[in-house]
Amino acid sequence: MRFFIAIEPGDASHAFGVVVPDLPGCFSAGDTLDEAFENAKEAIDLWCATVIEDGGMIPPGKTLTEYQSDPDLAGWIWSIVEVPVEKYLGPAEKVNITLPKLLLSRIDDYAKAHGATRSGFLAQAARQAMR
């Protein structure tokens, strides 16, 4: 699963701070930018494992534009990290659904334009509808 991260630039005396805006309370840091990325992945993994174990769900994400308009994160570096948290959700199951051809075509076009798969898009849409 892909997550936006905001990185507060570090310097010689301060670590790089990392916030995961999609996951409330999920943050990390690192002495180098590379370390900040790796620590962010670990923090995301642990956050998701804990929330799912406690019966919660991973919240749907917002768009990068929505996050970039947050004045508290102005001047931060934005990136995306991939963290395989799907392992906490159980194995994937194949389902058979019926949708109008035009809608299915639009779903596929939208998902492709946003770097997602049909299944990933539909799962995200379902999570967002249920929040």
Count of DSSP strands: 4
Average pLDDT for all residues: 90
**What's the helix count?**
4
Structural class: alpha+beta
The CATH class of the largest domain turns out to be Alpha Beta
Domain module count: 2
CATH architectural type of the largest domain: 2-Layer Sandwich
Rg, rounded, reads 17 Å
Oligomer: single chain
Q: Major sheet: order of its strands?
A: 3-2-1-4
**Poorly predicted tracts of residues:** none
Provide the CATH topology of the largest domain.
Double Stranded RNA Binding Domain
Helix percent band: 25-40%
Name the helix and strand elements from N-terminus to C-terminus, one letter apiece: EEEHHEHH
Cα-to-Cα separation, first versus last residue? 18 Å
Shape: globular
**Largest sheet geometry:** 4 strands, antiparallel
> Which percent band covers the strand fraction?
15-25%
Overview of this structure, please?
The chain is an alpha+beta fold and 131 residues long. The chain has two domains: 1-91, Double Stranded RNA Binding Domain; 92-131. 40% of the residues lie in helices and 16% in strands. The chain has four helices and four strands; from the N terminus they run βββααβαα. The protein has helices spanning 33-53, 64-68, 101-113, 118-130, and strands spanning 2-8, 16-19, 27-30, 77-82. Strands 3-2-1-4 form a four-stranded antiparallel beta sheet, with helices on one face. Strand 1 and strand 2 form a beta hairpin. Helix 3 (101-113) crosses helix 4. The radius of gyration is 17 Å and the shape is globular. It starts with a strand and ends with a helix. The mean pLDDT is 90.
